[in-house]
Design a protein that fits this description.
Elements lengths: L4 H7 L2 H16 L4 E4 H9 L6 E5 L7 H6 L3 E6 L4 E5 L5 E6 L1 E4 L8 E4 L2 H6 L9 E3 L8 E2 L4 H7 L9 H4 L2 H13 L5 H12 L8 H12 L4 H10 L3 H4 L10 H16 L7 H8 L5 H10 L3 H21 L7 H10 L2 H10 L3 H11 L1 H5 L5 H6 L9 H13 L6 H8 L17 H11 L2 H22 L6 H6 L4 H20 L4 H7 L1
Parallel strand pairs: 2-5
Antiparallel strand pairs: 1-2, 1-8, 3-4, 4-5, 6-7, 8-9
Helix pairs in contact: 8-10, 8-11, 10-15, 13-14, 13-18, 14-16, 16-18, 17-22, 25-27
Bound molecules: adenosine-5'-triphosphate (ATP).
């Protein structure tokens, strides 16, 4: 039995992994079998970024709503007919939990009849082979891949293949999905699928698409990493006007979208993962009328997304106002303000801000001010025994960082004066040597030479990594985590500097001037 749990753990972000464990526990406590399904399994296997997580439970997921809320998750919406729960977990991970079911299509354009089913039956009602796989999260079979249509082979062949000849007739929204996936992955449709696609298109089956499916596809477009590329393909295939009759790429803010994608990428590199979907919807609909935008908004199944999009401009204005007011009068205050702001608001403002002061502050927040972290006076702190082992270390490091941001603590004297009150008392002197037989035994070891030297070396070596590792930790530490969530990539240089710092106590008071010169 191939075990894909390792692959899954390797590919998911820590927050997504937490999400998998949470859903697994909630489903298990409710006595339901649970599987990771759909796009998440496809992306785990193919190596593409995993955008959201789809789970299938054997039972009614709407019964799990309370448990999700108790975990701090937000219920974005629920589909009573299809038994789907849309949830945003803490950490911003989007998940969908569906009940395993089959859909019986009696007539094109009419909603299917839904009946509970086994997981294998559920996989059979899916759109493409690459989306028809499930990974068991159940005790006894955890990690087992269910792949009844050999989706793995199609991932390897980079092909989109429908499961049966009537796929597009049964549910014409699959035509749009085919174009969307094809645009995203640059995978063509398999030959027979292409023929069925063409024939369904020519027969204009798309006119039978359900209202709900339109809303769902608009939402999915908002979550695309490169929405403009997908929108262009949808337009070329005539699907964009199916989503909204007057929608064209000419009605979109193309520059805004390009800038958004670029800024989000930069934020990701710094360790921020803003949800760009509300801003994407903003730019996708810039030149549609108010009514057209409102109609689109009403169709989106995730209410939290629809509301975030609706309120985006107002919230951005509010943040811009605060950034130009007293609250952001100094770099340290601005830092605190931006650290507490929602990343999606910063992202949107970074792209749309017209006031130079706002633009500059956001720019500094992501570049110049971040580098100040590397100026934390580690040698002086180590000299005064202010090390990460102290419980108040994160708070002290944070205060130092704020002062440095405001251009203070420039000289060594200033730094020492500030730090001294925080210095812990020096350690007690070593105990006096023992007398009698015990003392002889103790002395016997140093005479050998080796143990003492090794012991000393080890002592030094042990202390060093502790400092080196934790010096970079303040951003993740309790007190600082909120005020300056530094990306790990930027913490690294601080850790690199640590060896210089760790030498300070070894050389003791004979070398402070050397240390001071270095920094
Ligand atoms: P992504 O979220 O990356 O766009 P996805 O495959 O997860 O891709 P979703 O729209 O989230 O797409 O759907 C989840 C899964 O539900 C799909 O992988 C597919 O198995 C199934 N599915 C969604 N829509 C349909 C449909 N119209 N017909 C059949 N199966 C569908």
């Amino acid at each position: 039995m191939a075990d894909y749990i390792y692959t899954m753990e390797l590919r998911l972000t820590p927050n997504q992994l937490k999400g998998v464990n949470l859903v697994q526990d909630i489903a298990r406590n409710a006595g339901m079998n649970v599987y990771l399904t759909g796009g998440a399994v496809r992306d785990i296997m193919s190596g593409f970024p995993i955008r959201d997580l789809d789970f299938t439970v054997q039972g009614n997921p709407l019964k799990l709503q309370k448990e999700f809320e108790r975990s701090g998750a937000v219920i974005g919406g629920a589909d009573d007919a299809f038994h789907v729960l849309y949830v945003t977990l803490t950490g911003g991970v989007r998940i969908e939990v569906s009940g395993a079911h089959i859909e019986r299509y009696e007539k094109t354009g009419k909603p299917p009849i839904i009946t509970p089913a086994t997981i294998i039956e559920d996989l059979r009602r899916r759109d493409f082979t690459v989306n028809a796989m499930a990974l068991s999260l159940n005790p006894g079979s955890r990690g087992l891949l269910l792949d009844p249509f050999n989706g793995v082979a199609d991932i390897e062949a980079k092909l989109l293949r429908i499961l049966h000849n009537y796929a597009f007739v049964e549910d014409p929204s699959r035509l749009i999905r085919a174009s969307r996936f094809s645009a995203r992955f640059h995978w063509p449709l398999e030959e027979r699928t292409q023929a069925r696609y063409q024939s369904a298109k020519e027969s204009n089956y798309i006119e039978y698409i359900s209202h709900a499916a339109i809303g769902y596809e608009i939402e999915q477009l908002a979550y695309e990493d490169d929405p403009l590329n997908v929108a262009r393909v949808l337009e070329r295939e005539d699907w964009l006007k199916v989503l909204s009759p007057h929608w064209t790429t000419a009605k979109m803010d193309v520059n805004g979208l390009a800038q958004l994608v670029k800024t989000r990428q930069q934020m990701n590199e710094l360790g921020y993962y803003p949800d760009a979907a509300p801003a994407v919807l903003h730019f996708l609909t810039t030149r549609l009328t108010e009514k057209e935008s409102t109609d689109i908004r009403k169709m989106i199944p995730r209410r939290d997304l629809a509301e975030a999009w609706r309120d985006l401009e107002d919230h951005a204005k509010e943040l811009a106002k605060r950034l130009t007011g007293k609250e952001a009068a100094t770099p340290s205050r601005t830092w605190k303000l931006l650290s507490g702001a929602r990343p999606e608001m910063i992202l949107f403002l970074a792209v749309t801000a017209r006031q130079q002061a706002v633009e500059q502050k956001i720019k500094n927040f992501f570049t110049k001010w971040r580098e100040v972290q590397q100026k934390i006076p580690l040698p002086e702190m180590t000299e005064l025994l202010i090390t990460p082992q102290l419980p108040e270390y994160p708070k002290i490091a944070d205060e130092v960082f704020m002062l440095l941001l405001d251009g203070k603590l420039r000289s060594r004297t200033e730094r020492l004066n500030f730090l001294k009150p925080f210095a812990p008392p020096p350690p007690p002197p070593p105990p006096a040597p023992k007398r009698g037989r015990g003392a002889k035994a103790a002395q016997a070891v140093p005479q050998g030479g080796q143990p003492t030297t090794a012991g000393k070396k080890k002592g030094k070596g042990e202390a060093a990594p502790a400092v080196a590792a934790k010096v970079s930790a303040p951003p993740e530490g309790k007190a600082t985590a909120k005020s300056h969530p530094m990306p790990t990539s930027k913490s690294a240089p601080a850790a690199k500097k640590a060896p210089a710092a760790k030498k300070a106590p070894a050389k003791s008071s004979s070398s402070p001037s050397k240390t001071a010169k270095k920094h």
